[in-house]
User: Fold these one by one.
Assistant:
Number 1:
Amino acid sequence: TGFDSDNSSGDFSEANHKVAEMLDLDPHQSSRTGEHNGETEIQENGIKRHRTSLPAPMFSRSDFSVWSILKKCIGLELSKITMPIVFNEPLSFLQRITEYMEHIYLINKACSHADPLERMQAVAAFAVSAVASQWERTGKPFNPLLGETYELTREDLGFRFISEQVSHHPPISAFYSEGLNKDFIFHGSIYPKLKFWGKSIEAEPRGTITLELLKHNEAYTWTNPTCCVHNVIIGKLWLEQYGTVEIVNHSTGDKCVLNFKPCGLFGKELHRVEGYIQDKNRKKLCVIYGKWTECLWCTDPTTYETYKKNEKRGGEQKKLKPSEEVIKSENDEADDMPEVQDTVQFIPGSKLLWRINCRPPNSSQMYNFTSFAVSLNELEKGMEAILAPTDCRLRPDIRNMENGNMDVASKEKERLEEKQRAARKERAKDEVEWQTRWFHQGTNPYTGTSDWLYSGGYFDRNFSDCPDIY
């Protein structure tokens, strides 16, 4: 989550063979040794080794206080607040959105299932996995400049992805992804609504996410849960996801309702997800439970209800080990971070739908990035000649922060903000409206709501009319 100045680069707002060979990392290959500064090694089997660490470790935030900035801004719009670059992570919000694709195998699994219930289970797991990378990610991504783009082609994972910052006020990021085997289309637009509650910052998601399984002629839509960052005044920053997510299959009428539970006073419900899949007649077909930071399971409704009844009656249940229980110091305040071991209480007979990938051992020194996230800003030799000039990898402030040059990064950020301000004033003077390049505003064909739709043509690589934003 993030926020920035009204005069800055925006508010918070997440296959060409030649290009495919130059882009990104397999998240399951966390043991690979990668490159720094441009050279990427080739494995014997021809698969490229991508970097598994950043060029420079994370800059310490211990000497900086978010509250020292926010206390002057209570009652103001968060879009008016400028945050020091030290509170950022070296990724654009467009690159953060791309992390939805880290668990793309769940889309592939949905495509392979003949049973619509199993397809919905896989789609539900994918929707939960999309927010899993945010766990412990308390740094804010850079706000995209108007017209900024990001592309990612992964032949090993079978997809390509393009996103664009299509609006500055309100800040809107649009994205489109498709399977290289023409088996799915995944697209949407995101424009979170930020609220500052004094001790916490809440990002309420806006915008529709759509997944189309082309082989089955099915379309699913949903909206992400609310994300909240706690302890912005004092203490260790921590975040939670909460709210109801409804995934609708517009072809069958099936619906999956997932409840991301709020933490609660003692942290008992922290990270928990619970819900069910129902058919068009509202008959419950299965129950889903787990944690968005760990794993997701499903079982039939009868087994689940029987288990819960026995639990309430004090029947024999799987006992949690001491390390799995909620540990809370007597000196902890209610808004402090609950220390909870992420272990889901397993119901016998359940089926595993998804489990989170392990993070690299040095993740804490890399903004708590996943292996997938570590590679997103990797700029290899020769890539500049292929990418659109608006691609995130070419942003000098993000690049310098990644390399540990914080002073230069801060100055570059200010320069880009000034450049964007000047361009906006020039357009206003000439009464010229901003024209998006790769997306256009339209109507979602399944929900009937306003949406940003991909116009096509990006991978033809005609970038002659791209704006000069860097």
Number 2:
Amino acid sequence: MTSGKEQEAIRKLMAFLQEWDSAHKGARSHILNNFIRSNDGKTEPELELEFSQGASLFLARLTTWLRMTYMYSTCLNKLLKSIGIFLSAASGRRYIIEFLEIGGVLILLEILGLNHLKEEDKRECVKLLQLVANAGRKYKELICESYGVQSLAKFLATSNSAEAQEEVQVLLDSLGHGNPKYKNQVYKGLIAVLPCASPRAQQLALQTLVVLQDVVGEAPSILVEPVLSLLCSEHLEVQYEATQLLKALMARQVRPALLKGLVALLTPPKEKALSFYPTTLCLRKPMLVYVQQAAAAKAIGVLAKESADVAAELIQMKVVNGLMVAVGNLDHAASQRHASISLKYFVHTFPLVEESIKAALGPILFQRFMDSPETWYTKMDLIQAEELASTTVDIPRDMARMQPTEG
């Protein structure tokens, strides 16, 4: 038999549920406000105590109302936050299971694709999906099996909210770890974000790709073009993250293709003579090929300094000629500066390159270059620039003499 105190608690619970069932939208909004204010951060035992061991009855009503009204944004933010109190409750795995049983994941993912709903509501959806994913591998698999990666990647690429995009990054990173069955799907979903129009989404996708690289192992060849394309971004933070990903990829099989692409970017194709690089993304604005040229010159210097083997491979790919072309680009000072700094590294590191460059530039111009690689090009006239860009530096494939100098 139940005690009088227990019976009173049950009567109180039933009265609360009846109040909810009979309430109109305004009254339900008020109930949700009180619930959020009173129960945020509570554990499963505390919620059960609050609801006389019947908290699941209220959660069922919340999820049912969500399923019925999410298309119309009826108190959607408060509703999602209330469900979040259950899903985030310590020791509350049962609440997550109950939420999933009514198709909660599919509803949340569908909300992300509805253009008329608010970004802040979608951000709450992502937070709930994070809670589901954090519950374990099988829950991550459920999200991925529900086409969650595609939905999240699309939302990341199109969202206007930096806060929402950052929440998506956290979730995609979570889905990429401890989820071996779908880690490659997450990786490719992030690659699909790279050509989008949002610099913030590009930056976050690149950061996550770097983190997931060791998890995934080898990178697919489809990554080469979009990563090199981002070097033409006018946003330096995107260029920086693209270079960080290039560094992470130097130990992978795509390295030769990436290096070949970088060297090709140093010599933008003439009009009506377009090659595979620069990509069509950068050809939308003529100046972007110069932005890309400068970023490629800078990235080449970074990669060469990281690895003598990479530097030697670049030399065999005629990177020196490409850097000379970039130094001679009087239309873009950044190309000249970055190419000159990278060129000086090759000259200082490889005696054979030094000999070849000195012969190509002549003693006076070579000395100016060595004295001040950051500024020497500012004193270059048009004839010198044209000669520099058209000079072919012939470095023999003599690896015995290609050894870098010590220290």
